[in-house]
Amino acid sequence: MIKMNSDKKFLTISQLNHIARTVIEGGFPGGVWVIGELRQLKIHSSGNLYFVLRDESSQVDCTVWRNIARQLDWKPENGIEVEAFGQPSLYEKNGRYQFIVRKMLPAGKGNRALAFAMLKKKLEAEGLFDSSHKKPLPVFPFTIGVVTSKTGAALRDIIDVCRRRAPWVSIIIRNALVQGDAAPSAIVRAIEEFERFGKVDLLIVGRGGGSEEDLWCFNDENVARAIYNSKIPIISAVGHEIDFTIADFVADKRAPTPSAAAEIAVPNRTELADKLVDLLKRIGTMLSNEILSNRSHLDSISHRLELSSPQYKIQEYRREIDELQSTAVRTIQLGVERASTRIDLSREKLNLLSIDRILERGFSIVRQNDKIVRYSKILNIDDILRIQFGEGSAETEVKKID
Length: 402
What we know:
Blueprint: E1 4-5, E2 8-9, H1 13-26, E3 32-43, E4 49-54, E5 59-64, H2 66-69, E6 81-91, E7 96-106, H3 110-126, E8 143-148, H4 153-165, E9 170-175, H5 183-197, E10 202-207, H6 212-215, H7 221-229, E11 234-238, H8 246-250, E12 253-254, H9 258-265, H10 269-308, H11 310-353, H12 355-360, E13 365-368, E14 371-372, E15 384-388, E16 393-397
């Protein structure tokens, strides 16, 4: 709102800041590229980035909105020089001058970094980096192919490590340019030649350290596809540990240095000997346990065969017969003893009932004509009777009958 005071016109602060913002943004209608050192980086919880870009004598506050920050394929860090494209503006609320960044690349390698990011995104989308496509490295390779410059230190490092760790391994060298515009096609040809040769177990492709430009040939799409299409497992060994190339992402294994690639490729003979000794010990223990187990099993089978043999059965039957016979004898003896006891008891009872025992107790027997007289009614007067006593006998004549 404009306040009128006689002949003076006043602007509110809001109006002033709005006009200033319009003027600033209007001076750069299409945006502008700037270059400067990144400092005071802050990553807000909202996802926005806030930092300062400065040169030798000046600085400007910068903002990267969340949707733009998400599209960055590299990590901003304090102290690096960057190329930023955006729109100078003014935050009307506090009158703070700022630069709204729409695009940002590391300085000095903006185009190259963009090309790297685009190729990486493209190949990743096609699945060239997927772990499911990576071939396992042979545990004991006998022949290794090396694609690198025959005059480079990388080759000497690879040979030295292989000779020290596994002197039995054969190394076939394919000299190739690993720097410059002609290098990508040379690397591709070398890989394809090894494919046709077909007599190597593993390939090491790479070179020693250098500038980003020196290593750029390993960011070539044709090199990446040659590595991906190779039926031979490939270890990428480019530069130093901090260097990453497209070849590293596509290869079956990435090594931080050529020396490390050789260490990955071949086993250490000392470690191998120790493992072999340990393996032999474990095999010996397993065989000993197996022998003991088999011996126990054989003894068990032998015992079962023995138990099922006719000879064993006959012996068993004989033992059973002997036991039955002994049992029968004991049973018979016991029966005889019991019968003898019963007979003795019966004999004793019979003895008690015998005529002699009866007569000894004072009884007598009357006979008529050798027949025992049981009833008096069968007798007649004057019959002659014979009386037998416990000791002796007498004759008598019947005088009276009752």
